[in-house]
Structure formats: structure tokens, C-alpha cells
Amino acid sequence: RDVNISNVWIDTGDDAISIKSVGPELCTDVHIRNATLISRNFAVGAHTTGGISNVVLEDSRIGDDRGSSAWGIKFKTQGTGVVENITLRRLQLGRIVAKSYYGGGGGFALQMSGDHMRNISITDVTATSVVSAGSIAGSSISPMVGLTLSNLTLTCEGKLCRRFDCKFVESSDLGGLSPELRPKCRTGRSDDTTTL
Question: Which of 105, 113, 122, 168 has the fewest Cβ atoms within 10 angstroms?
Fold first, then answer.
């Protein structure tokens, strides 16, 4: 808790930064700014047992224009801990590409999956090039609540990206996305599909 990271350059060959809570303790109050993350991505999770809250990543770059990163931003929760009050803003993604050593996986600007996620804001993000805008998925037991996506400018390998894949997301504001990115989400309370 109470961590400040600024003016760093990180290349690890795996997640450049991964915010986790492996044990019962809450991981909270983490502020990262002016970071250059060359390796795989910025991640929240996968271990979130104790909960994660009050995290800010701002004014930073993820990946380079040669394709160093397989993902831009990744949320993956495991356990019963709540992931909440996460703010990512003013980010530049490089060329995000699928990697053969991940079985051809990756290439997403944003990938979110798991339980107990709420009040996450991702704004003012640009990408040089991605394979796909990405996917956003809560769970049928614990839908994602309070997600805000706004002002994402993504180019998918030289053309406009298709909308995000989306399911089990409720009470969120994705209206700040351009129409081609704005997903139609299946909510957690029914099989209805709703444009958020």
C-alpha cells in the first residue's frame, strides 16, 4: 500500500507491471506515472484474493512501435477480492501484436475478464496499431459494474477496429467511445443485449 512509481523504463519479458494481492492483505493506493513499459502489458491480477483498490496509471506508454507487447492493458481476477477504483488515463499504446510464443494469442488493446470488478475508468488512450480492440467480460455471478471507457483511439492493422466483445457488464458508461468501438453487452441479469 501507498506506492508511488514514476519516471521508469521497464522491459522484463513478461508483464511489465502487474498489480496483485496474493494473500489476505488489500493492495491499495498505487500511483504510477511517466512509465515506459516495453514488455508484455500493464496488468491488474491475476491474483486478487485480498482485493485491489485506488490504483492510478497515467501519462505512460505501453509497448513500442516494433511490436514488443502482446497486450496493452489486461485485467484478470482470481479469488474473492474486489478490484475497484482503478483509473488509467492519458496512455499511448505502441504496436500491440499477437505472439507465437503465446500460442498466437494477444494483440488486444484491452482485455478484461473475471469477477468482482467495479468503478474502473479508462480514458484518453491511443494506439499505434492493434489486432483487436479487445474483450470486456464480467461473470454471470458477478457482472462488472461502473466501467467507464472514453476517448479511445485505436487502429486495427491499418483500418478501423470493430467493436469490443462484451458480456456481463452493467451500469457502465461506454458512451465516450466512437460508434464503431461501442459494444453491445449481454448484462448479468438477463440474456438481453444492451448498447452501453
Answer: 105
pLDDT digits (tens, 9 = 90+) for 28-47: 999 999 999 998 899 999 89
d(CA 186, CA 21): 29
Nearest to 164, CA basis, from 173, 172, 174: 174
Confidence band, pLDDT 50/70/90 cuts, at residue 190:
very low
C-alpha cell at 164: 469490443
Contact 112, 145 (CB under 8 A): no
- CB contact set of 182 (below 8 Å; sequence gap of 6+): 163, 164, 174, 175, 195, 196
Instruction: Select the more confidently predicted residue: 119 or 98.
Output: 119
pTM of the model: 0.91
Q: Which helix (H) or strand (E) holds 24?
A: none
Q: How many CB atoms lie within 10 A of CB 163?
A: 16
| DSSP one-letter code for 152 | E
Q: Grid coordinates in use for 68?
A: 514488443
pLDDT of residue 113: 93
pLDDT over 70 (residue 50) = yes
How would you classify the pairing of strands 105-106 and 144-153? unpaired
Q: In a 3-state reduction of DSSP, which class is residue 42?
A: strand
Could you give the C-alpha distances from 186 to 109, 137, 142, 147, 169, in angstroms and in order?
A: 21, 9, 13, 14, 7
